Amino acid sequence: MNTLTIDIRKAEPRDADAIAEVHHEAWRGAYSGIIPHRALTTMINRRGGEWWANAIRRAATVLVIEIGGKIAGYATLGRNRARELKQQGEIYELYLRPECQGIGLGSRLFAAARQRLADHGLKGMVVWALEENDNALAFYSGAGGRDIAEGVEVFDHKALKKVAFVWE
Ligand SMILES: CC(C)(COP(=O)(O)OP(=O)(O)OC[C@H]1O[C@@H](n2cnc3c(N)ncnc32)[C@H](O)[C@@H]1OP(=O)(O)O)[C@@H](O)C(=O)NCCC(=O)NCCS
C-alpha cells in the first residue's frame, strides 16, 4: 500500500508556478458561471507564476498543502482588512485543486491558517466568501464560522454579494 504524506508549510518562491496552476483551476471551477467570464479570465491571467513569486517574497503569508509532494492547495492570510469588523486576522483566500476537494484537505489547511494567525497574536478571524459559492458557505459554516456581515463586489458591472464569516 502506498502512503501519501500530507504537509502544510509556508510557500517558497519555487512553489510559485504550482500555486498559479492551483489558483487557475480552482477559480475556474469555483467561479465559472458566477463571475462574468471576461472578468474571471482577467483575474486569472494577472496571477501567473511571477505574480505569486512576488507575493511569496513580500510580507503576505502564503501557505501550501502538499500531498505526496504535489501542491494541492494554498491559503493566504494576514491582518483583517475590514475596519468595521473587530476581528484582527483574516484568511484572504483558501483554494484547492478541484480533484483534491472534498477529502478533508481544506479543513486541514483552514486549521493551520487559523493557528498561524493566532501564533502571530491576532485575535479572532474573518473570511469572506461570495454568497453564490455554495461550497464555500457550507464549508465555513461547517467549520463553526458565524456569518455576520455582507458586502458587495463588482465584476465587470455585475454586483455580487459576499458574506463575512467570523471566528472569535
Ligand atoms: C471550499 C474548500 C476550501 C473546502 O475544502 P475541502 O477540502 O473540499 O473540504 P473538506 O473535504 O475539508 O470538507 C469539510 C467540510 O466542508 C463542507 N464541504 C466541502 N465541500 C463541500 C461541497 N462540495 N458541498 C457541500 N459541503 C462541502 C462539508 O461540510 C465538509 O464537512 P464533512 O467533512 O462533514 O463532510 C474547497 O472545496 C475549495 O477549494 N473549493 C473551491 C474554491 C473555494 O470555493 N474556496 C473558498 C473561497 S472563499
TrEMBL record:
<dbReference type="Pfam" id="PF00583">
    <property type="entry name" value="Acetyltransf_1"/>
</dbReference>
<dbReference type="GO" id="GO:0016747">
    <property type="term" value="F:acyltransferase activity, transferring groups other than amino-acyl groups"/>
</dbReference>
<keyword id="KW-0012">Acyltransferase</keyword>
<feature type="domain" description="N-acetyltransferase">
    <location>
        <begin position="6"/>
        <end position="168"/>
    </location>
</feature>
<dbReference type="GO" id="GO:0005840">
    <property type="term" value="C:ribosome"/>
</dbReference>
<dbReference type="InterPro" id="IPR016181">
    <property type="entry name" value="Acyl_CoA_acyltransferase"/>
</dbReference>
<keyword id="KW-0687">Ribonucleoprotein</keyword>
<keyword id="KW-0689">Ribosomal protein</keyword>
<protein>
    <submittedName>
        <fullName>GNAT family N-acetyltransferase</fullName>
    </submittedName>
</protein>
<dbReference type="InterPro" id="IPR050832">
    <property type="entry name" value="Bact_Acetyltransf"/>
</dbReference>
<keyword id="KW-0808">Transferase</keyword>
<dbReference type="InterPro" id="IPR000182">
    <property type="entry name" value="GNAT_dom"/>
</dbReference>
